[in-house]
Design a protein that fits this description.
The protein is an alpha+beta fold. It contains ten helices and four strands; from the N terminus they run E-H-E-H-E-E-H-H-H-H-H-H-H-H.
């Protein structure tokens, strides 16, 4: 079995993070190939043809290529079911997927003003706009509802903590009720392995 995860070379993609953490939690051996998005390496003909969407993350599992993080996570869950990355209970699993979909399709102002490069490179130096602050309030509202029902770990927990660290790693105090959750997620070895990875000097793209 050979599995390769294709990542951005700056290691700032929340969706690469999600796939990386899932593979680590499942104990699946894999290799990493870093691609330079600033040099448009994902648009090289061979990669574009195999990944279909010309984005990261992508995986190559014994010659089977797949891109888009949600599709990858579902594939990993079904292919390596010995350690779960999504809840076993149907309703809890649906709730986790709901949260993950929300994190991918909402909070646009927050994601722009506290982009992931501000987590790992130069921190943000401007206050949040009104739209971004509204996103923060929405994020906290959703997080409070989700955290109250959290049981065993799932990748949705790590994704939520990553999103809230857009604020925490930029010096914003997290709500007391959510801070222990974020700290617990951030201390997981799988998460720390990603967070502490040596990164190339950042180049805007």
């Amino acid at each position: 079995m050979a599995l390769t995860l294709y990542s951005d070379r700056f290691w700032i993609s929340p969706w690469v993070f999600s796939c990386y953490v899932t593979l680590k939690e499942k104990g699946v051996p894999f290799e990493i190939v870093d691609l330079a998005l600033d040099k448009k390496e994902t648009h090289q003909p061979e990669y574009k043809q195999k990944s279909l969407t010309a984005k990261v993350p992508s995986i190559d599992h014994d010659g089977f290529w797949l891109s888009e993080s949600m599709a990858i996570l579902e594939y990993l869950e079904e292919t390596f079911p010995q350690v779960r990355a999504l809840p076993a209970n149907t309703r809890e699993r649906a709730r986790a997927r709901q949260l993950m979909s929300f994190l991918r399709t909402d909070l646009y102002a927050l994601r722009e003003e506290r982009s992931t490069n501000t987590m790992f490179y130069d921190h943000a130096d401007k206050p949040l706009s009104g739209k971004a602050q509204a996103d923060v309030e929405k994020l906290y509202e959703v997080a409070n509802a989700f955290v109250s029902g959290v049981g065993e770990w799932s990748v949705a927990d790590s994704e939520l903590a990553f999103c809230m660290q857009r604020l925490g790693m930029n010096g914003q105090e997290l709500p007391p009720r959510l801070r222990p959750f974020v700290e617990a997620q951030w201390s997981r070895p799988s998460v720390q392995s990603y967070v502490t990875h040596v990164r190339a000097p950042y180049v805007p793209y």
